[in-house]
Design a protein that fits this description.
The structure is a single chain. This protein has 186 residues and is α+β, with helices and mostly antiparallel strands. The protein contains five helices and eight strands. An eight-stranded mixed beta sheet has the order 1-2-3-4-5-6-8-7. The longest helix is centred in the middle third of the chain and has 15 residues. It is globular.
């Protein structure tokens, strides 16, 4: 487990199913994460959770973000397409519990996660995909660290009668100034 002042990042547990199913069926969450837009049954999420908990492929890692003060799951942070040879992975993060947004957790959780990813997993680059109209996510990225724009997928995502661009961003270990392994062991 990883700890910061307000948050704990931990392995997924079967008890997380109810939170995950609620978040994965929330249309706003689906849109912001460019996720699966059809309804997800509890049974589908139960199978999804079992698969993610098994870490069978080693090419992905899904972790729960929990608020320490209330022992309450608030979000999900993940790595997919992990390439240990090249030292790269795609990352994603969402605060699924809307009541816990705008409390600084959108910066605190990625900071803690990046310390783990860059120092323990020894990855050197993370990349992600963000809808260009999602101003809150861009604000969060600016607060987290130095993100590089690597590309743009033009008219990639359909919503409300319009196609939207997706920006491809990355962050490198050397651009992240406060990487101190001792922060993992508070």
């Amino acid at each position: 487990m990883l700890y910061s002042k307000n948050l704990k990042i931990r392995a997924l547990q079967t008890e997380d199913l109810k939170y995950l199913n609620e978040w994965r069926n929330d249309l706003e969450n689906k849109i912001m994460s460019q996720g699966y837009r059809l309804p997800v049954t509890l049974l589908q999420d139960e199978e999804w959770l079992k698969q993610k908990m098994s870490y069978s492929s080693g090419s992905e890692l899904f972790l729960m973000v929990e608020e320490i003060s209330e022992s309450l799951p608030i979000g999900l942070i993940q790595l997919t397409n992990i390439d240990y040879f090249s030292g790269t992975a795609q990352w994603g993060f969402i605060i699924g519990n809307k009541a816990k947004r705008s409390k600084g957790y959108g910066v605190e959780a990625p900071h803690l996660f990046f310390i783990y990813v860059f120092n323990v997993l020894n990855l050197r680059k993370l990349y992600g995909y963000t809808l260009t109209y999602n101003k809150k996510t861009f604000s969060m990225l600016q607060k987290i660290g130095i993100f590089h724009e690597e590309g743009r997928l033009k008219n990639q995502y359909y919503l409300n009668g319009e196609y939207h661009d997706i920006l491809i961003t990355s962050i490198f270990r050397e651009d992240y100034p406060d990487l101190y392994p001792s922060k993992l062991f508070i």
